Amino acid sequence: MGWVSDTVDSIKSIKLREALHQVITLGMIVTSALIIWKGLMCITGTESPVVVVLSGSMEPGFQRGDILFLTMSKDPIRSGDIVVFNIDGRDIPIVHRVIKVHEGQDTEDTYYLTKGDNNPTDDRVLYNYNQDWLQKKHIMGRAVGFLPYAGWATIIMSEKPIIKYVLVGALGLLVLTSKE
């Protein structure tokens, strides 16, 4: 009967190694994604190299769900450039076009006024109280390319959080139960 208990111990050991292998694989996938994101941040010079257009304010140029690729180059931002900016105290960045640039002596003294292509007025109503212009610190990046409609999954998951939890759970379960 000793060989039966040795076989059971051997099977338990194999299952434990398989489970550990699956957990390590999941960790490597997550780590790889983070490394790619950090690499893109270094290459583009922006904290958010990829953003999803969340509203129709830039139609017809960009549709809701388009993915924009951003960079923050040394070139000055000019009127007509499409930028992504963040307002102090707000979490969601905004994608709009620069319509006026007020240049000072230094780049820190340069101010920008933006407007959505599909909006009737400039963005001063979106800025904080008593703020009429954006500064360089508000600009996250300049759009250099886009991928049409590829960001709809992000929009759906942000509007219906249960879908996000089900999808993440299913992916995690798939990784943990796969035999490879």
Automatic annotation (TrEMBL):
<keyword id="KW-0378">Hydrolase</keyword>
<dbReference type="GO" id="GO:0006465">
    <property type="term" value="P:signal peptide processing"/>
</dbReference>
<feature type="domain" description="Peptidase S24/S26A/S26B/S26C">
    <location>
        <begin position="40"/>
        <end position="142"/>
    </location>
</feature>
<keyword id="KW-0812">Transmembrane</keyword>
<keyword id="KW-1133">Transmembrane helix</keyword>
<dbReference type="InterPro" id="IPR015927">
    <property type="entry name" value="Peptidase_S24_S26A/B/C"/>
</dbReference>
<protein>
    <recommendedName>
        <fullName>Signal peptidase complex catalytic subunit SEC11</fullName>
        <ecNumber>3.4.21.89</ecNumber>
    </recommendedName>
</protein>
<feature type="transmembrane region" description="Helical">
    <location>
        <begin position="20"/>
        <end position="37"/>
    </location>
</feature>
<dbReference type="GO" id="GO:0005787">
    <property type="term" value="C:signal peptidase complex"/>
</dbReference>
<dbReference type="InterPro" id="IPR019533">
    <property type="entry name" value="Peptidase_S26"/>
</dbReference>
<comment type="function">
    <text>Catalytic component of the signal peptidase complex (SPC) which catalyzes the cleavage of N-terminal signal sequences from nascent proteins as they are translocated into the lumen of the endoplasmic reticulum. Specifically cleaves N-terminal signal peptides that contain a hydrophobic alpha-helix (h-region) shorter than 18-20 amino acids.</text>
</comment>
<dbReference type="Pfam" id="PF00717">
    <property type="entry name" value="Peptidase_S24"/>
</dbReference>
<dbReference type="GO" id="GO:0009003">
    <property type="term" value="F:signal peptidase activity"/>
</dbReference>
<dbReference type="InterPro" id="IPR036286">
    <property type="entry name" value="LexA/Signal_pep-like_sf"/>
</dbReference>
<keyword id="KW-0472">Membrane</keyword>
<keyword id="KW-0735">Signal-anchor</keyword>
<dbReference type="GO" id="GO:0004252">
    <property type="term" value="F:serine-type endopeptidase activity"/>
</dbReference>
<keyword id="KW-0645">Protease</keyword>
<comment type="similarity">
    <text>Belongs to the peptidase S26B family.</text>
</comment>
<dbReference type="InterPro" id="IPR001733">
    <property type="entry name" value="Peptidase_S26B"/>
</dbReference>
